[in-house]
Write a structure and sequence with these properties.
CATH class: Alpha Beta
CATH topology: Rossmann fold
Strand content: 15-25%
Helix content: 25-40%
Shape: globular
Radius of gyration: 19 Å
Number of strands: 15
Number of helices: 7
Distance between the termini: 65 Å
CATH superfamily: Vaccinia Virus protein VP39
Number of domains: 1
Largest sheet: 7 strands, mixed
CATH architecture: 3-Layer(aba) Sandwich
Structural class: alpha/beta
Strand order of the largest sheet: 7-6-5-8-9-15-13
Length: 251
């Protein structure tokens, strides 16, 4: 009986996979992370088809990978990498880098190398050459302490790349870490588990934590047809997913 049920589940899974391959068949778009080519990306939300049908990556992860490769960040021998809240599409590519030493950290995710709070990292000072923190800080009540921890574990001459949704139409960050009602968080911060929506002063907060900050949108260097081909577009609406490239102040 159990064998028959397992067979049915296997067949259903194979049929779903086949239907998915047919649905997205083609070579019009390409995912930079997994190398997959498809007729189109999957809709992540109505009117914004950007989700990779194979690895599930979003534009912000592909933008980060694009930036790291094009800027030669990953070419350093013996690179010590800290990946905060590792994304499923990006994690295997970083783990597979020849000669690099990869560590991931997350408070809850069992896939992470280390389970720890971002405001109290269990790593020595100046332990990493590259720190990646994407779409995490908007979830952290004490984000300023988390930023100082990221600066503390980064070596001089190293790079921390921070990504968070930023509304450049706002004058300053809108936040309330004490707010617990999920529907009110959704209304005010665009997501039920966010405690803030950053304004352009995110750059100032990072600088206060001990960083020198440069703002990047790697896709701005590409013509529109290539931005669409690689699925690197910014989301519709006022929020953007730019890269904040941070080095230690005085480095």
């Amino acid at each position: 009986m159990g064998g028959a049920s397992t067979l049915k589940r296997t067949v259903r899974s194979m049929l779903r996979g086949l239907a998915r391959r047919v649905r997205y068949a083609g070579r019009r778009v390409q995912c930079e992370l997994c190398g997959g080519r498809f007729g189109r990306f999957e809709e992540q939300r109505p009117g914004w088809a950007v989700l990779c049908p194979r690895c599930g990556s979003l534009p912000r992860q592909r933008l980060l990978w694009w930036y790291l490769r094009k800027e030669g960040v990953l070419d350093r021998a013996g690179l010590q990498i800290l990946h905060v809240a590792p994304e499923r599409g990006l994690e295997p590519r970083l783990r597979a880098l020849a000669g690099a030493h990869y560590t991931s950290v997350d408070l809850h995710d069992p896939r992470a190398t280390v389970q720890a709070d971002l405001t109290d990292l269990p790593f020595a000072d100046a332990a990493f050459d590259l720190v990646l923190c994407s779409h995490v800080l908007e979830h952290v009540p004490d984000d300023r302490t988390a930023m100082r921890e990221l600066a503390r574990v980064l070596r001089r001459g190293g790079l921390a790349v921070v990504q968070s949704p930023v509304n450049y139409e706002m004058v300053a960050t809108h936040e309330d870490p004490t707010l617990t009602d999920e529907e009110e968080r959704l209304r005010r911060f665009s997501q039920r588990d966010h405690v803030r929506v950053y304004g352009p002063d995110l750059r100032d907060r990072l600088a206060d934590a001990g960083f020198e900050v440069a703002l990047h949108d790697p896709a701005e260097r590409l013509p529109d047809d290539l931005t669409a081909h690689y699925g690197l577009s910014q989301p519709p609406g006022p929020l953007r997913n730019d890269l904040y490239a941070c080095t230690k102040s005085g480095a």
